[in-house]
Amino acid sequence: MIQILIVEDEKPISDLIRLNLTKAGYGCTCAYDGLEAADILEEQSFDLVILDIMLPHVDGFELMEYIRSLKIPAIFLTAKSSLEDRVKGLTSGAEDYMVKPFEIVELLARVNIVLRRYHKAGQLLTFADIVVDAENQKVTKAGKEVILTPKELGLLILLMRNRNITLFRERIYEEIWGTEYSVESRTLDLHIQRLRKKLDLKDAIKTVFKAGYRLEEAHEVSV
Ligand code: CA
Questions:
Q1: Domain that holds residue 214
Q2: Which of 2, 20, 198, 216 has a CA between 20 and 30 Å from the CA of residue 112?
Q3: Which of 100, 117, 134 is the last residue of a domain?
Q4: pLDDT digits 0-9 by tens, 8-50
Q5: 8 and 113 part of one domain
Q6: Could you tell me if 20 and 102 lie in one domain?
Q7: Same domain (yes/no): 142, 78
């Protein structure tokens, strides 16, 4: 499971982030000041840090120096909105900089982008609580492993990489089976049915009449 450290001294904001990231299938740990964060970082490993700038004891900029030395990607989430601060934040080595107030759906999207970028060439794909490690051919849903056949996995990755876009049957056959699409073939439909069942994607994988399929991102809970 992907582990995220949330460094935020305002508990309601911290709780909100943790709740939504947990729902999206991430493991979360919360630190409420800079020193506590540094202590936790010393003991546990993380895939991403989301951090505030104005923090008790050690501020976000100082903490960022330590995070950078650990080579963990980080996203600043702060009320400090001046250009100077944003530039300082990004040049300090953070992958992204978000200004409060923020929408949870945007934070989730940015978390996904940073994780994807960091795990180079999109080796780690996420959709809701589903995480696909393409390199190791491993799929988890809410942290539990789900066994897929190679074709099912290929189809899932294709859908995830093209989320919210209609994939035509012709293209899917070409990419997954390396064959031409034939009107009589139900192979694709059967694979889609199994994916929907195994990963509870009944509502997310839409059938586009006479065209193909589309994986649709549901709207996340916003602030
Ligand atoms: Ca703060």
A1: 124-220
A2: 198
A3: 117
A4: 999 999 999 999 998 887 889 999 999 999 999 999 999 999 9
A5: yes
A6: yes
A7: no
* Ligand 1 mean position, distance from CA 4 (Å): 18
Q: Contact at 8 Å (CB) between 51 and 75? A: yes
Percent of the chain with pLDDT over 90: 70
Which residue do the tokens 């080595």 mark? Answer: 93
Helix (H, G, I), strand (E, B) or coil at 163: coil
Same structural domain for residues 92 and 176? Answer: no
CA of 20 to the centre of ligand 1 (A): 19
The sign of the torsion formed by the CA atoms of 26, 124, 223, 29 equals positive
Distance CA 208, CA 205 (A): 9
What is the Å distance from ligand 1's center to 82 Cα?
A: 16
- Give the whole-angstrom CA distance, residue 161 versus residue 176: 14
Question: Phi/psi at 171 (nearest 5 deg)?
Answer: -65, -40
